[in-house]
Amino acid sequence: MAEEDTFNVAVIGAGFLGARIITEMLLLGNKVAVFDQNIAKQRDPQTALNEVIGGLLMECDRQGLLGLAEMVPPKGGKWTPFSSEPPRQAKACSSVAEASRNAHIILEAVPDKLEIKTKVFSEAVSTARPGAILATNTLSIPLKNIQQAVASEIAGGSPLPAALRPRVMGLRFLSPVVFIPFVEVTLSAEQEKGVDKEDLTSMLRKWGKACFICDIQGAVDNADQDKIDFIRVARERLRLDTSTAQRRQVAEAKLRAAIRMGPEVVRTASADLFTETKCCICLDAKPTVPSMLCGHVALCEDCAGVVESGTKQCPMCRERFVRRM
Fold it and tell me: Which residue intervals define the domain RING-type in the entry (predicted)?
C-alpha cells in the first residue's frame, strides 16, 4: 500500500470486536496503535496483543484467506505479509492518549455506555491530529447524544464554536469484520451536508470499504421522531449470515490480491469473482442497476442511491460507480 493511502489508526478496546477491527486495519496496511485495559495490565502488553492479533491472523490463514490474498501468515511478533514491505504490528499502548497520538481516526470498541465513550473520545482528542475522526460503533446511543457529551466534556460545560466541535461519527464494521468490504455509517444531518461525510468516505475509499449511510440523525426537528427513527434503523441494521459472510470474505481476499497487481487484473478478476443474485448491500432485492465503468450489476435501485451518496464506488471492484442509464 502506498504511503499516502495509510493512516494512523487508534483502536480503543481489544475485545471480540476490537481485536477484529485491529486485525482488519493491519490487513489494510495502516499504522495501528491500541489501548485495552486488560492488555495494558499484562506483564508484557505488546506480547499479549501480538498473541491476540496473531491468533486471528492464523484463523484467517486456516480459512485460506491469507493465501487467497497472497499474504504470508504470521510467525510471531511483527508480521511481514509481503517480502517487499516493512513488517506490521499493532502497538500496545498504556493509555487512550498514547494510542491516539497523531491519529487520523479513533475507532472505539468499548462497552455501549455514554459515559465510557465520552471519556474515551475526550481523552483521545487531546493527542490526536486536529480534526481527527472519532468513530463510534454504538448500537443503542443516538449519535447526537455522544456528540453533545464529548463536546461538553472537552469544553468543561461551555459552548464550543462549530469549528472546534469534535467530529464524532457512527462507523460500524459488519461481522466478522476481517475481509468484509462493507461498513455502515451514521451521520448527523449537518455532517451529511458538510466536509465530515467527504473526509470519512474518502478514508473508506482508500481502505476499499463500500459504505452505506444507515441513518441521518437530526434530519427532522422533532426529537421524539429522531429517537423513533434511530430505534427503527438499529433494528433493521444489516447482518450477514454465515454463508454470505464467508462468500464475501473469499471474494474480497482474491480482490485484494488482484488490486496489488493493477487495475487491468482487477477488471478481469472481478468479472469472475462476483455473480450476485441479490443486491450485495441489502441482500434482499434483485440487482438491477448496472455500473457503466465496470459493468457490474450488483445493486438494487434503492441501494444504488445509497452508494451514490456514500463512497461512490462499485462495491464489487472499487471502480468509480457511475449508473448506466
Answer: 279-318
What are residue 310's phi and psi, to 5 degrees?
A: -110, -115
CATH number for the domain that contains residue 294: 3.30.40.10
100 in any annotated domain:
yes
| Start-to-end C-alpha separation, the chain | 34
Name the residue with cell 472505539. 108
pTM: 0.86
Q: For residue 10, what is its C-alpha cell?
A: 487508534
Locate 116 and state its grid cell: 465510557
pLDDT tens across 62-98, in order?
999 999 999 999 998 899 999 999 999 999 999 999 9
Whether 43 and 167 map to the same domain: the answer is yes
Residue pair 2/55 in contact (Cβ under 8 Å)? The answer is: no
- What is residue 306's three-state secondary structure? helix
pLDDT digits 0-9 by tens, 216-262: 665 434 445 454 444 444 444 556 778 878 888 998 999 899 989 98
- The count of structural domains within the chain is 2
Nearest to 12 by CA among 43, 33, 42: 33
Domain assignment present for residue 269? The answer is: no
Let me know: does 173 contact 181? Beta carbons within 8 Å.
Answer: no
258 found inside a domain: no
* Dist CA 115 CA 130 (whole Å): 23
